[in-house]
Specification:
The structure holds two protein chains of two kinds. Chain A is α/β, with parallel strands linked by helices. Chain A is built from 13 helices and twelve strands. Chain A has a domain of 114 residues: 3-Layer(aba) Sandwich (Peroxisomal Thiolase, Chain A, domain 1). Chain B is mostly beta strands. The chains are: A alpha/beta, B mainly beta.
């Protein structure tokens, strides 16, 4: 037990448009998580921060206190939150008992604009209009739905579910419900995906306090065990953003590998999971990731049955996910963990999973083909 | 001489063919050509002319004008897709239509992309329905 790592404090900001400085979001989240854990910044042994923006997470010490602690910065696209959490977990060795993890971003409006050169791709790819994240999501969704016999209408069901959860969550950004028909009939962005089937870049911050072994139970009545956090990259056969070519044949995915590794490390199976968060950058992504993580392989029927609603078999993205929260890239993976932690502790701010869920799961996925998954558990 | 978005993409212009690379070790085909094989990490690759006919593997329509460095004379929604050429699946424009189905038979073609400052029409590659 002394080497087990627990989450003993968690906080998030409201997500949405934000006019202040990026560090305001990070500071609000960190102070919230410290208060939730009942500790001061001076008690933190190590820190990890992630952002996709231009600010330096490690300079948050100028606001929080110059305690001399080691502060690692990570930057891994949409998977940044998961990587930050993994890094913090790995730093809890030796004399380090308490870690603080923070993720934040404050993005400009509109789709992300990626530079071909930054990805090692020729300028032609951007000049001809193919260096676009939303077209990738559409191409991937179209193919997955085709291969698995899933109708376009299921994309609408994903959106309806997400915005219903978002409506109930006081810190979500998009809080207006959307019907299946509204989702299907809204402006097409990249067919078959419409405006209500995409998340948008926005602003937000999330922080967690981790503690090792017995310290966790001193600090928290109901610590949530970080039973596993695993990160994987792409192998031959994966279908990633900004790919001028794909290999034919067997399809692989870093999400398949990261999820399998997380379940193995935690000693649980997908069937044990009672509440989960999946990367839902678009409605198609949630459907794909249900399959790739092993949580559900008959998605069409499962959405129709309401399996993923709050009283269903496996509530998914209970805070509205990326669709209703938007995606401040650095914060998004930690938002997922925050939501599952509060669900397992029975203090969710939006819809609370009934009963007493004890096993949760989170999944982030991003460019250029990486995924991080966690398994979170509580005891009685 | 045909003006194109990037000469390294093409093995020939008449008839048009894309230039890829093939790994001497695992035979994996890659586009555009590169000096190493990402599939098996091999370093012995040869440049090849890719097949010019295939089938639509997935497709979408780009409904909004992409941000810079996208170039066009006048934006109109256009289709893009992945085309299964056999040894490799290549992403490119799908020409002359915004309504496609997975499995549609297509062939490689040159398509005008934009007009440069000197009035020269710059071309890229795309795929059009086979007659």
């Amino acid at each position: 037990m002394s080497n087990e790592v627990y989450i003993v404090g968690a906080a998030r900001t409201v997500f949405g448009r934000f006019e202040g400085e990026d560090h305001d979001l990070a500071e609000e989240a960190v102070r919230g998580a410290l208060a939730d854990a009942g500790i001061s910044w001076g008690e933190v042994d190590v820190a990890v921060g992630g952002t996709n923006g231009e600010t330096k997470p490690d300079n948050l010490v100028s606001r929080l206190g110059l305690t001399g602690l080691p502060f690692i910065t990570v930057r891994n696209g949409c998977a940044t939150g998961g990587v930050a959490l993994l890094t913090a977990r790995n730093m809890l060795t030796g004399g380090n008992d308490i870690a603080c993890v923070v993720g934040y971003d404050n993005h400009a409006r509109g789709a992300f604009n990626a530079s071909p050169a930054r990805y090692g791709i020729g300028e032609w790819y951007g000049q001809t209009g193919m260096m676009v994240t939303t077209s990738y999501f559409a191409l991937k969704a179209r193919r997955y739905l085709h291969e698995h016999g899933i109708s376009d209408r299921t994309l609408g069901l994903v959106s309806q579910k997400a915005f219903a959860y978002g409506q109930a969550h006081p810190k979500a950004w998009r809080r207006t419900p959307v019907s299946v028909d509204e989702a299907m009939q809204s402006d097409p962005i990249n067919d078959p995906l419409t405006r209500f089937m995409f998340c948008a870049p926005d602003a937000g911050g999330v922080a967690l306090v981790l503690a090792r072994g017995p310290r966790a139970f001193d600090l928290c009545d109901k610590p949530v065990r970080l039973a596993a956090v695993e990160l994987r990259g792409r192998r031959p056969g994966s279908f990633e953003v900004f790919s001028p070519w794909l290999s034919p044949g067997v399809r692989t995915s870093p999400s398949i590998d990261a999820a399998a590794a997380a379940f193995a490390a935690a000693g649980v199976t997908p069937a044990d999971v009672q509440v989960a968060q999946l990367q839902d950058t678009d409605s198609g992504a949630e459907i794909i990731h249900l399959g790739e993580t092993g949580l559900c392989t008959d998605q069409e029927a499962a959405y129709a049955r309401g399996d993923f609603e709050i009283d269903g078999r496996l509530p998914i993205n209970t805070d509205g996910g990326c669709l209703a929260n938007g995606e401040p890239v650095g914060a998004s993976g930690l938002r997922q963990v925050y939501e599952v932690v509060t669900q397992l502790q029975g203090r969710a701010e939006g819809k609370q999973v009934p009963g007493t869920p004890r096993v949760g799961f989170t999944h982030v996925y991003g460019a250029p083909g990486i995924s991080a998954c966690t398994v979170l558990t509580t005891t009685a | 001489m045909t003006a194109v978005v990037d000469e390294t993409l093409f093995a020939s212009y008449d008839p048009v063919a894309l230039r890829g690379s093939a790994c001497s070790q695992c035979q994996a085909h890659v586009f555009p050509a590169q000096a190493t094989c990402p599939m098996c990490a091999g370093v012995s690759v040869v440049e090849v002319s890719l097949p010019t006919v295939g089938t639509v593997w997935s497709w979408t329509v780009q409904r909004f004008a992409p941000k810079s460095p996208f170039r066009t004379d006048e934006f109109a929604p256009f289709a893009i897709g992945y085309v299964d050429l056999g040894p490799v699946i290549v992403e490119g424009w799908l020409l002359d239509s915004t309504a496609w189905s997975i499995g549609d038979a297509v062939e490689l073609a040159l398509a005008p992309a934009w007009t440069d400052a000197d009035g020269v029409v710059v071309h890229t590659y795309g795929f059009r329905a086979r007659a």
